[in-house]
Amino acid sequence: MSGWKESSEAVESGADDGLSPVSALVALGSNLASEWGAPDETLLRAVERLDAISERLTVRAVSSIWRTLPVGESVGPAGQPIFANAVATVETTLGPFELLAALQEIEREARRVRKVFWGPRTLDLDLILFDELVLASPTLTLPHPRAVWRDFVLGPACEIVPDWRLPTTGLTLREHRRLLGENFANFESTAFWTQVVANGDVNAFGQNV
Ligand code: AMP
Predict the structure, then answer these.
(1) Which end of the chain has less Cβ packing within 10 Å, N or C?
(2) More confident call, 105 vs 119
(3) Is 51 a catalytic residue?
């Protein structure tokens, strides 16, 4: 697609400084208590930390918190605790690698413990979309390659930015969510079908979560 922005030295070095801000989509997940408390509390603190972490980044919108089943696992004593998931949009003049570093710093602050791939985690932050950037580097892939298979990303994202498009497919998040739903029966591994729970609290950004 001709409109794609491509990987470059400028992007690698975060040399976007001083340019006009871009919008990005961040996904948050937690299913273990962290330094900051239970998973819901952890997500809210993570959003607050994200908003505060740089003068060059502002959180614009936050979804509800969704309750989701762990991928490929039973829930309960033999399996994993249920996940809390949400997404947030940010506006930033940080480069994509700087934003990823900020997310990783917040994960560290929450003392993320990750013993197994797809195992329980105190806090997982993924960069889903960064403007229209398409990138495949060793440390950062954009758009996030598994986002379109994850209703725990697409569901919350459709609450706040259903019309954002993936630069790779040209489809909106709403269209991707519909496709995922239509194909659900064909993907046994997508046993993580989600249930939204809005708990009625109001977060620091004045939105219902
Ligand atoms: P995970 O713990 O499964 O979230 O994976 C984290 C690793 O994925 C880190 O080493 C990142 O460098 C890498 N990674 C690649 N693309 C992304 C992305 N879009 N968002 C977050 N992490 C990413």
Answers:
(1) N
(2) 105
(3) no
